[in-house]
Amino acid sequence: MERRTEKEPRNTKECVSLMIICYRRCSRYQFECKGSGECIAIYNACDGIPQCSDASDEGPELGCPALCK
């Protein structure tokens, strides 16, 4: 039976998730756009005005109100 320490990832997906957390491009005061990886000020996320080219800063998964089109 293989033994792991608690901090070792269990699978590739978990490893990738850990790498994203460890190697973030944006500071803790910034939001990282999903598609481009660009960083915007955290207060611009969910403000009703998409700053990310893919509008991921206004996405429903963040709990933002729906944008009127």
UniProtKB/TrEMBL annotation:
Keywords: Disulfide bond, Glycoprotein, Membrane, Receptor, Repeat, Transmembrane, Transmembrane helix. It comes from the Eukaryota. GO terms for cellular component: endomembrane system; membrane. It is a single-pass membrane protein. SMART domains: LDLa. The keyword Iron-sulfur does not apply. Its main location: membrane. Coiled coil: none annotated. InterPro entries: LDL_receptor-like_sf, LDLR_class-A_CS, LDrepeatLR_classA_rpt. It is found in: Endomembrane system; Membrane. This is Uncharacterized protein.
